[in-house]
Design brief:
Elements (H helix, E strand, L loop, with lengths): L3 E6 L7 H15 L3 E5 L4 H13 L5 E5 L1 H11 L6 E5 L5 H6 L6 H13 L3 E9 L2 E3 L2 E5 H11 L7 H13 L3 E7 L4 E12 L21 E7 L3 H7 L14 E6 L1 E5 L4 E4 L2 E5 L2 E13 L2
Parallel strand pairs: 1-2, 1-3, 3-4
Antiparallel strand pairs: 5-6, 5-15, 7-9, 7-13, 8-9, 8-12, 9-10, 10-11, 12-15, 13-14
Length: 296
């Protein structure tokens, strides 16, 4: 493995934490004997093009510095290659880092862990979800949760996670269950009225909401969580349980496992790792050992 590694930095992550985190992270990596190159970019497409160029040129590792959005962008560059992927999580949600057991909002500690793992060749292959040519690490969301994302992304105020709480309340006021058609890999078709359908490669989204608590990054399967035709009162009662993952015990919630899932519903945008993929229908497949991750 080459001793030159690439930091893939989002300077706006966490209201500037990405740029600030890159400095102690780079210092810790250099102190461990690595040559560090930093990749920025004028915008997301430009940054991704630069990251892919670094992978093609044989960088020893691509290490994303930022939140789940930056991790998602980095996965597009390393998925399906043998370039190791590292993550220094300094964003708002940091769901992929938490799922991987990596330090959160401590860039120096994360960089030291990465340096030690690279020296000891502690790399772990994990699965990724794939929709078309697009990869994701955590959850493909659709339904109420994706509509909350739509509304929250349009809101200029307030900043941070609170705006999504406000967006949830606004969406709940008018939301009605949607007619879903879910096709699983064995050809089984389920037609259900559902509040949301979440396809989990990882277990959580939204900064620790364990929507697919049993998801395993190494089993080659998605956990598909279906929240049925709940009333607003039921949703408000069940919602806090998502953070513990105990919502799956509610009779309106079901979970199935599959390696390939097609979800279809009218007027719904699919989000993966918190990033918009496009309108349903979407077909996701779980790709075994699609990326090699540095660390625990």
């Amino acid at each position: 493995m080459t001793c030159e590694i690439t930091l893939f930095v989002n300077p706006t992550a966490g209201r500037g934490r990405g740029a600030r985190a890159a400095r102690p992270a780079a210092s810790a990596l250099r102190a461990a004997g690595f040559s560090v190159r930093t990749v920025l970019g004028e915008n997301a497409p430009d940054a991704l093009a630069r990251a892919r160029a670094a992978v093609r040129d044989g960088t020893g590792a691509l290490i994303a510095v930022g939140g789940d959005g930056m991790a998602h962008l980095a996965l597009q560059a390393v998925a399906g290659t043998r370039t190791p992927f590292g993550l220094i999580a300094v964003g708002t949600g940091n769901d992929l880092a938490r799922t991987l057991g990596l330090p959160v909002r401590d860039p120096a500690a994360a960089a030291r862990l990465i340096a030690e793992a690279l020296k000891d060749s502690r790399l772990n292959d994990i699965d990724l979800g794939q929709v078309g040519d697009h990869w994701f690490g955590t959850v493909l969301a659709s339904g109420l949760d994706s509509r909350v994302n739509d509304r929250g992304n349009r809101m200029r105020w307030p900043l941070g996670r609170f705006k999504y709480d406000l967006a949830l309340l606004a969406e709940l006021a008018a939301f009605r269950p949607l007619p879903y058609r879910i096709t699983l890999d064995d050809g089984e078709v389920r037609e259900v009225e559902a509040t949301l359908v979440a396809v989990g490669n990882g277990s959580s989204y939204g900064g620790g909401m364990r929507i697919c608590p049993g998801a395993d990054l190494t089993d080659g399967l998605f956990d598909v969580t279906v929240v049925g035709d709940c009333t607003r009162t039921t949703l408000l009662r069940v919602f806090p349980r998502v953070y513990r993952g105990t919502h799956v015990e509610h009779p309106k919630v079901s979970v199935v496992r599959a390696a390939k899932v097609e979800i279809a519903a009218p007027d719904v945008t699919g989000y993966a790792d918190g990033e918009p993929l496009g309108p349903l229908p979407l077909t996701a497949r779980c790709v075994r050992a699609a990326v090699s991750v540095i660390g625990p």
